[in-house]
Amino acid sequence: MTERGVHDSTHAQNRDKGQNDAQGRDQDQDHDPDHDEDENHDQGQNQGRDQGQNNGQRHDPGPVQNQGRDENRDRDRNQGRDENHDRDENQNLDQGQNQNQNPYQDREKDSAMTERTSTPVAEFGEEIRRRMAEIKTYVAPVLRVDQLTPRMTRVRVGGPELAGFAGGQQADEHIKLIFPAPGRSVPVLPTFTLDGLRYPEGVTPSHARSYTVRRYNPLTEELDVDFVIHGHGRASEWARSVKPGDRLGIAGPKGGFLPSPDVDLHLMVGDESALPAIATILEHMRPDVPVRVIVEVADRDEEQELRTEAAVQIDWLHRESAGTPSLTEAVRAMAWPSGLVSAWVAGEAGMVRDLRRHLLRERGVERRFLRATGYWRQGRTTDEWAAEDMVKLRAALAAGKVTEAQILNGDVDLDD
């Protein structure tokens, strides 16, 4: 799965995460998987994500999962969580978001996730704490490594160590991956808290990021996760050098949803970090259901075969080719169908935010049929993004702008 940051943001009705892994995050990715209105959905379920997406990793900001998923894309903050929120400041929004620019810039840097004390904050309630406490963790061996494209690597882990893992039942599920600390061969599993990941005293914290569950086979107890390889982020470096027998920590799964049967068209939009999640959604589509997919990748070599029984049209946008429209431009230019449209959007948070607003305000997509999740943010590390979102979330809760029920359902948009 590609890494998804801490905010798996709000899902149209709330959201989910993934992750599986690509562009601006740790960049290994799906989803956790940070998330916008859709993305916030997951916000209720995940926490934490690596800097900007990029490895397929998902941004995940809050205590629960957020952004756009039916409980999805919980996503990742190194000390904090796996779910994402499409959030950014209008001015920063894209100060850097040119879809055609290279999203794989090495921005992975450690940042303190400290909250500002000048803003009123609120504590989360027992239900949120209970869900955090229920997150299950595993350490399993790597079984095989496959190079899907020049920049996408699939890692399979599994064995009896994954007994009880409850993934593979829905689309767009996300997990938090826990990598061994430098100099160690086995990751130390953390305790999940509302203030971040907690490790035993004296133990060097492991690197943790949110990714999408690409595939899980409960019969063989094998889990596939896709990583977008770029730069020198820790997750990317791990994916470059991983070999069978290496050990990987897994927490989750969280989020996940099943495509609604009550719409006339399913629209899915994302960059390579969203490809693992898009693939799982397509695999859960009913036969002959109309689907439109718009995906941005570096070039033709990064295109993948996406299997589905749906009646799907896939538009591949090559970011490195001159004149290629951005994802936002492509969606704005498309002929809009009549009838109900379900939209799923994931990738760079500024892009997700803009498309979410476009779909709600200009296209008339119903909130319950929109999942928008930011997996990474241009110009921000995952930890920075997660810290900002947590401050916003606590402040909104203290001010009465959101309720715990909304957080649990992923129905939170920190940008509005």
Automatic annotation (TrEMBL):
<dbReference type="InterPro" id="IPR017938">
    <property type="entry name" value="Riboflavin_synthase-like_b-brl"/>
</dbReference>
<dbReference type="Pfam" id="PF08021">
    <property type="entry name" value="FAD_binding_9"/>
</dbReference>
<feature type="compositionally biased region" description="Low complexity">
    <location>
        <begin position="92"/>
        <end position="102"/>
    </location>
</feature>
<feature type="compositionally biased region" description="Basic and acidic residues">
    <location>
        <begin position="68"/>
        <end position="90"/>
    </location>
</feature>
<dbReference type="Pfam" id="PF04954">
    <property type="entry name" value="SIP"/>
</dbReference>
<feature type="compositionally biased region" description="Low complexity">
    <location>
        <begin position="43"/>
        <end position="56"/>
    </location>
</feature>
<dbReference type="InterPro" id="IPR039374">
    <property type="entry name" value="SIP_fam"/>
</dbReference>
<feature type="domain" description="FAD-binding FR-type">
    <location>
        <begin position="135"/>
        <end position="260"/>
    </location>
</feature>
<feature type="compositionally biased region" description="Basic and acidic residues">
    <location>
        <begin position="1"/>
        <end position="34"/>
    </location>
</feature>
<dbReference type="InterPro" id="IPR017927">
    <property type="entry name" value="FAD-bd_FR_type"/>
</dbReference>
<dbReference type="InterPro" id="IPR007037">
    <property type="entry name" value="SIP_rossman_dom"/>
</dbReference>
<dbReference type="InterPro" id="IPR013113">
    <property type="entry name" value="SIP_FAD-bd"/>
</dbReference>
<feature type="region of interest" description="Disordered">
    <location>
        <begin position="1"/>
        <end position="124"/>
    </location>
</feature>
<dbReference type="InterPro" id="IPR039261">
    <property type="entry name" value="FNR_nucleotide-bd"/>
</dbReference>
<protein>
    <submittedName>
        <fullName>NADPH-dependent ferric siderophore reductase, contains FAD-binding and SIP domains</fullName>
    </submittedName>
</protein>
